[in-house]
């Protein structure tokens, strides 16, 4: 009688243990989809974390879809061409402007990202001319506006 009871109990125990083992094992299809999900997550993170770079310089030319800037990169003269898209913010004096409003000779700071060998501007900030340069220009215009005082005549 004990053998008759022990046999079904052992069988139930063996099947129960095997059931847990099967439940823990991942099926190949599930592993593939999990791997694909993690790959796409990593790609999205890479896109989000595309290193933002900064370039400072003087505008050589500007159009509605690009800005060419000359400046220094690691101590050497450099020239960059930045694509401008609808997401690019362009400001001058704190006010939003368009790429076509940027003038040749303007001093700018460009924050950009590079993808597939193409630099795309995220933001372009037109810097105000330095105060000292502005004062010098004001003095030049003041001096040009005033005629020279006649020299005192000697007797």
By secondary-structure content and strand pairing, the structural class works out as: alpha+beta
What is the number of helical segments per DSSP (H or I, 4+ residues)?
3
Which consecutive residue ranges, at least 5 long each, have pLDDT under 50?
Answer: none
Distance between the termini: 150 Å
Written overview of the protein:
The chain is an alpha+beta fold. It has a domain at 53-131: OB fold (Dihydrolipoamide Acetyltransferase, E2P) (Beta Barrel). The protein has three helices and seven strands; from the N terminus they run H-H-E-E-E-E-E-E-E-H. It has helices at residues 2-24, 28-48, 131-145, and strands at 53-62, 66-73, 76-83, 89-92, 95-96, 107-115, 118-126. It has a seven-stranded mixed sheet with strand order 3-2-1-6-7-4-5, with no helix packed on it. The longest helix has 23 residues, at 2-24. It starts with a helix and ends in a 10-residue tail after the last helix. The mean pLDDT is 76.
